[in-house]
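Dear Dr. V.,

Thank you for agreeing to look over these. As mentioned in my earlier message, I'm a first-year student in the group and I'm still getting used to reading structure tokens, so any feedback on how I've presented them would be very welcome. I ran two proteins. I've put each sequence directly above its structure. The first is here:
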Amino acid sequence: MQNSRYNKAAAIALILLLVLTGGGSAFCASLSGARADGTSDALRTTGTDGAVNASTDTKEVPKINAILAGGPAISAKAAVVMEVHSGAVLFAKNATDSYMPMSLTKLMTALLVLEDGRMTDTVKCSYTAINGIGSKVTRIGLVVDERVSVLDMLYASLVASADEATYALGEHVGGSSRKFIKLMNERMQELGGVNTTFSSITGTGGSKQTSCAYDMALVASELGCRADFMDIASVKWYKIPATNLKEARTFAQTHKFIRQTLKYNYAIAGKSGGQMPDNGGYNLCTYAEKDGMRLVAIVMGSSTDEAAYDDTITMLNYSFENYVCYSMKGAERLTNKDYAGFFDNCPMFTGKDHETVYTDSSATIVVPHGADMTKLEKKIEYDIPDDYVHGPNVIGHLIYFYQGAPIGSTDILYYNEEYPLSQKDFNAVWPKYLLSPSLLESVGGPGTGTVVKLSGTKKATPTPTPQPKSVIRWEGTGKREAGIKAGVLFGGLFLLLLIVIYIVLPMVTIGRRSKKNLRRR
């Protein structure tokens, strides 16, 4: 009986310690049906690959229209043609209606892998990547524990549409399929997606994996600005060299325009999109370029595989014939007179024309052929940073509209001649074998030549050469001190727990036993 009470008291003390230190947040979350990432079991869905994504509240999906109304008839249930650099929509049919993206999902996987940047890393194929993705998938014959470079895996994913390679890439970059799917949904929101829920890395997530032609065009446009992606998505075939477990293997491009089993002169890259289940139609992504204008066409739910390519040709030809692309280089000069409202909101620019304020010359806009340029409208959005780095700083955006439809935008830039440094920037350029300026101050200050001890050796600390107009600002000061204080607090609480368990509780137990013995006497 006494042992039972003792155990209960110890358990209560342990739970109190966990709650006080915050270390039991995951434990407490599990008691309330919530998870550490802030979502509850009731708000989560599981895809066929075992991955979990947080579902969102039902909200009204906006309609996306093309610059020009109308357009040619196509068999696809939904489609979008977008100019890659400006994001202007040149053709739209049911652009935000929900459909299953199937293998177009691999575009988002590719974007995250390329942005991660570890192309020379080696990917080890897990058991789940090989055996846990289902039977009705596309494969290139990878096996468990086979090691392949990220770049080779990306070719397999985009060129051959290999599902096991795509899944392995997601695990490698995200740490797990679950975490990678979370990254996919977050990146989609950053791009401005309006109707997408990813629940699978590869696109085999069943009915819970949904997107729309507009959202897929946003992802494809982001990729279409990257030379590394276009190099991969434009090859006819690719050969993976021998690995630790298999001989070299070669696979062909699955996009028929790029493999040239079908002909379209302006096609430069693409990704096959697969077929939706239950005869839901075929998807396709195609990049085309003509007269300096690069377009991406997304079709979802075309009646047949051949129809998907026919629909793509129809949409692209219509877009090339009806629109023209203009460079923004030299088109804007920002002065107080032209944009008084903008400078009124930026006190640092008030009172003079600043040649250090300019627009991004690489931006483009797309307008209909023969458009009435007086119908162009401009809108300025402010994006004033908290701090300015040396060189170009984005301080706003200039957005162009034609008859109410967005046709492109450009960043407004301010060139800062000073040299403010964040802690991260400083650490990146400061030699690791030298002490930081804050530590130098504590041992004599810069310029004193103070000799300090570093790892058993002695080095004379040189004086850093100051930059002209230098302003050094530090971020995150006090974090180390806060960590020390937190460690002391947690250590004290833990010591208190040990005292309660090993001293207080035994003394209470002994006292009770002594009272009982006295009563018996």
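The second protein is here, in the same arrangement:
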Amino acid sequence: MISTKHPALPRMATFLAFCTSLVACSGSSNNPETVPEPQLQPLAITATTPTDGGTGVLNTVTVSATFDQPVNPATLGGGNFSVRCPADADAFGSVAYDAATRTAKFIGVSAAPTNDPQSQVAEPLPANTTCVATVSTGVRAVSGATLASNRAWSFSTVPDAAFLEQGKNTFRFETFGDESQWSDALRMHEVIGAAVDPTTALSVGLKVDSEALPAEVVSGIVDGSISLTSPDTTVALIKLNAVVGVKGTVEQRGGRDVLTRVGITCALCHSTVDNSFAPGIGKRLDGWPNRDLNPGAIIALSPALNAEQKAVYSSWGAGKYDPRFNLDGMNGPQVISPAFGLQGIHKVTATGDGDNLAYWNRYVGVTQMGGHGNFTDGRLGSTGVSVTNGNDDQVSSRLAALQAYQLSIPAPAAPIGSFDGAAAERGRTLFTGVAGCASCHSGPEFTDANERLHDPSEVASEPEAQGVPSYASRTATGKYRSAPLKGVWQHPPYFHNGSAATLEDVVRMYNTKNSLDLTEAEIADLAQYLKSL
């Protein structure tokens, strides 16, 4: 078969190729042109609270940042928004985001809480400090946009005096309605009115606030015209709000003052006086543990208790109280703890229960004092604990101011001349060196409580005395914290159970437990250092 080419075919092929190229460039739906993605507008902060460089900022301020576009809340955590007071301190808190206003707020509660939300009460910022707030480029908008760079602003704080005054009044005078327990159930008002004169009250460690005494009462005590062996005088002192930690209702009946109801406050156990007027009478020292107080002996006076209960309470002794006995029935009293020097420490109890001081205030206010409210913690005991008193919560609304006041109380400095300076310096070298104390008692507050807790096997205060249950086993954590050491000179005996009478005994017990091979001279030097803190 013979084939021939038509002379027009080459020209046709060229034309078809040209047309094909036109179609390819036409942007038709069959072969769309690639369009570049639009550039994201960078995320920006439009306002901060406080403003950068702010001074005189109340330490109860809520630190916040407002953004120009919606933010992905999940990106605000993980340290991407932090507040540090001062700048080199560890950050503590969590972030809440309000989508409606595009505002992130830094709040002083744990970002990883271990206790129920009811006890998550924001801590105030440290006062008289320069704080630095930082929002990092890790924060992302919903669109995916980020900040062009980290944004930081600083401000200086002052105490919120009105809030602290509210907290001080709660600490000193608020019963949370616990008269239901101390009067209605235990009938302590009857005992006090009939049998507790000032001499007896002072003998069991109750204290009298000399600044609450009118001049004529002071004169009467001095010249003996006011009897210290009459219960009527005790009632008169309670009427004046002069008995530390005791709040009463006094009514006129038959021409005389009668104590009709009585309750207790936080100050009963966690305040004492400076004895400036007489032993047991003086100016208040809030936050100082009252190691003279014998709570068990006082409770045992109740006519509502049976002999077995009275025997347990009477066994505790001065300066000790068992905050679990009424819940688990075990008897293992603990020393009354100081409530000073707690700013920046979030595990405030001996066993680190709770994430802040408000947790323990709620626990004590409801389960121990008998205040009206609820405390719940599923970690306690074999089935958890939930206690509700009354139907009018008188605890929750007061926790924030109470916590703020307690956190404002500094640890007392060691009195001049109370320690040997040269020995203390040698002891400091031992503390940070061969004795190994600083491995746990670290940082500005001499505790690692914010980072970790310790197994009972690590501490020198366990095992407990024969027949006494492990206190850690009765708590939410089952562990112990390293006690902060500022002001440790003030509150012997030591350890949670008072098993060391002196600071020298503390060192000896750890010397034995940890095989430190310290000499008696080194033990004495280390104790002098502890007394200087």
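From my reading of the second output: The longest strand covers residues 256-264. Residues 9-24 form the longest helix (16 residues). Does that match how you would interpret it?

Kind regards,
E.
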